[in-house]
Amino acid sequence: MSDADSPARETSESGWEDLYQHAPCGYLVSRPDGTIITVNETFLAWTGHQREALAGRTRFFELLSPGDRIFYETHYAPLLQMQGFVREIAVTLVCPDGRRLPALLNATLTTAAAGERTIRTVVFLAADRRTYERELLAARRRAEQSEAHATLLARTLQASLLPPELPEIPGVEIAAVYRPAGRGDEVGGDFYDVFEIRAGDWTAIIGDVCGKGAAAASLTSLVRHTARAIAVRARRPRTLLTALNQVLFREGTRTRAMWFSTVACVRLQIRAGRDVRLSVALAGHPHPFLLRPLAQPVPVAKHGTVLGAFPEASFHEASLVLAPGEALVLYTDGLTEARSGGEFFGEARLESLLATLGERDATGIATGITDAVLSFQHDDASDDIAVLVIRAPERGAGAA
Length: 400
Prior knowledge:
This protein is α+β, with helices and mostly antiparallel strands. It is 36% helix and 28% strand. The chain is built from 10 helices and 17 strands. It has a 5-stranded antiparallel sheet, sandwiched between helices. A 5-stranded antiparallel sheet has the order 6-17-14-11-12.
């Protein structure tokens, strides 16, 4: 090489040295036992260590926090020896003044032509990344807490829209099951209620209001409490539904809201000799089924007008007497409209199911229905489901 090439070579070597010393990352070379041979200025500036205190005197793992020293000995070093490299290992560097620096390490075990083995380690500061990870973790925890709070609030509000427990009616079995859609983190529109008008005279309602969330909760509360108030003076189901329709239509017009609801209303009268007489009227609600032991279920009552949709509504009333062992099964459309893939549970499947439940008590019928529907949906309810069963027990059973 000519003398003219010497300045260029020196400049090139000086450039490479400057790049090494002031690279945007720390750089260390150490022996296989971790003893540091060389270290660049970037690493020294970040940590505050002195070069003479490190080179030939300190092993790399001694710069780590106590927990990371253990990790270095048990995982980092064995992995490096086994596969020849490690990538993105998170550690904490301890500075002479006690500061702690989060860092990421990449290291490679190399062998020179003379057989000398060295570890080349690149160090990246990870303070911003750690801060981001902590913020991300904190945000996730806040989101989980918020979701848990919303779920609890929804379930508490939903519980307030259902009777805390069903009343005990002498000579009658009453059972109900409510299953919210999905995870139950949103207030649904299905409801039921059973209340006494006077001795031996009871009203049972089951329904489904439009919408979800707070709006559904408000409408459900209006329907339930209005029905209770009306039932005191309008005991016949058809009369009760007529008055309830007027209230919902008036409120919907006043608020310009969608105040629609389907309702099935049943009047129970317990007579001497324990005859259970029922009067049933429907307001756009799926018709209930009369369930007899060892017999096909029979649909009861005709569909009437959906509540709140029109100023005038028409309702039909059906009357029947429950013989011992017979039951009336009421439900919301979340049952028949339950989906599995593109297939509905459907009324035909429900009828087939009910034919197998006729010899169960009221609780067994209600749980048998909901269990079958949830199994059909792989325990992921696509809509709220409510079931209400009114049953006359066999003679000598369930007497009160």
